[in-house]
Amino acid sequence: MSAQLPLAFRWQVPSQSFSNYIAKSNQTVYQTLLQVLDKKEELSMYLWGESGTGKSHLLQAACQYASARNQIPVYLPFSQLQHISPDALDGLETVDLVCLDDIQQITSSSPAMLLEWEQALFGLFNRLHENQVPLLITANTQVQSLGLNLEDLVSRLSWGYSFKLEPLPENCKRIILQKYATSLGLSLPDKVADYLLSHHPENLKQLIIYLDKLNYASLAKKRRLSIPFIREVLNDRFSGE
User: Fold this and answer.
1) Residue 234: CB partners within 8 Å, gap ≥ 6?
2) For the domain with range 18-164, which CATH number is right: 1.10.1520.10, 3.90.1150.200, 3.90.70.10, 3.40.50.300?
């Protein structure tokens, strides 16, 4: 495996699992993902949708699923593109699962770097396909709208399954936050969860980040989650409210 791949990219959030994933209208996506991981049919899956629809959660859960079966998963968050170079993809065909999150980020690169990324991804796809290694990819839009220039890569990314993730109903968001809080050992009362949702109702991904920050603060200060405590810890976000 390439020395360019930081260990942190192997797998980041073990608390995001299939057990605390709420599928709802994405039930078909969830069931199909399990088939890909079990190598029953296609070995690649492209998931797209707006922020907060659970794309990263599914990839992290897939990594946990693979790890629990004594397999080696690799997770690359392209939101941290500044820390990843195209040669980080070298050798990934030797692992058991490859997850590429927010792949649309490469299109913000310079034309020369975008070409390097496209060629590296094309080569990786072919090697994974040859070695029968499952590949999971997420983006904020469908393949044809990514703005890629390498037609062969667009063709490869169109292989396998492609699903748009639908946003969760409003009444499910509190449940997700509370399940995640429980996985961290936190108690998140209804009124506190509703307070968080009222300030950032559409971006669950950001709220998960807030809960991680609140968890560290709660442990350090030995305090329970409350609205005053949230205002104190997240004053950079909720100041003056």
Assistant:
1) 210, 213, 214
2) 3.40.50.300
Residue whose token pair is 């941290």: 80
**According to the model, what pLDDT value does residue 201 have?**
61
Q: Domain 170-235: which topology? A: Helicase, Ruva Protein; domain 3 (1.10.8)
This prediction's pTM: 0.78
pLDDT digit string, tens, across residues 122-164: 999 999 999 999 999 999 999 999 999 999 999 999 988 999 9
**∠ CA 7-9-10, rounded to 5°:** 70
Q: 49-75 burial string, b = 16+ CB within 10 Å, else e?
A: beebbbbbbbbbbbbbbbbeeeeebbb
Handedness of CA 14, 134, 55, 172 (dihedral sign): negative
